[in-house]
Amino acid sequence: MKILVLNGPNLNMLGIREPEIYGNNTYPDLVRMIEDHCKKINVDVEVKQSNYEGELVTLIQKAYFYGVQGIVINPAAYTHTSIALLDALKAVNIPTVEVHISDVSKREDFRQISYVSKVAVKRIIGEGFDGYINAINYLVENYGQD
Ligand code: DQA
């Protein structure tokens, strides 16, 4: 199975940004963890991060043309603002799991809106980095070929 893991703005700062919320592990740690897991379960994964909304839209569009079968997305702050990301995900119609490292349901009011959740087949919040692994497993179990 071909999976794209997409991370939005400031997630490249993991390990540096607000460690009391996001932990001490770094973005390269996250990428390594995802790649190691996917190797074990024979999933063809690409892990991308961008601080730019339009770049994230382009990466979602490219996923369609590359035959990606599942998307794991942590849109970060764009979760709460971006109709463009919602439209891109609707356009490609690829099963998408929304992941948040922190438990956004227990945070500020402005984090309670998620446009992406309107199209996501599943939402995983507050499980730290494990949330990405659980999202990948969910896609494999529910949308993998065999
Ligand atoms: C986040 C939660 C968002 O509200 C925030 O803007 C982020 C990270 C998370 O993973 O918990 O950048 O998506």
Summarize the structure.
By secondary structure, the chain is an alpha/beta fold. Helix content is 38%, strand content 18%. It has helices at residues 19-22, 27-40, 53-65, 83-92, 130-143, and strands spanning 2-7, 44-49, 70-74, 96-100, 122-125.
What are the SSEs and their pairings?
Blueprint: E1 2-7, H1 19-22, H2 27-40, E2 44-49, H3 53-65, E3 70-74, H4 83-92, E4 96-100, E5 122-125, H5 130-143
Parallel strand pairs: 1-2, 1-3, 3-4, 4-5
Helix pairs in contact: 3-4
1,3,4-trihydroxy-5-OXO-cyclohexanecarboxylic acid binds at residues 10, 74, 76-77, 79, 100-102, 104, 111.
Uncertain segments of ≥5 residues (pLDDT<50)? none
Hetero groups bound? 1,3,4-trihydroxy-5-OXO-cyclohexanecarboxylic acid
Total number of helical segments? 5
Please tell me what the overall shape is: globular
Helical content stands at: 25-40%
CATH topology: Rossmann fold
Rg, Cα atoms, Å: 14 Å
Per CATH, the architecture is 3-Layer(aba) Sandwich
User: Please, what is the average pLDDT?
Assistant: 97
Which class do the helix and strand fractions yield?
Answer: alpha/beta
Q: How big a fraction of the residues is strand?
A: 15-25%
Number of strands: 5
Output the CATH homologous superfamily. Dehydroquinase, class II
The profile of the biggest β sheet is:
5 strands, parallel
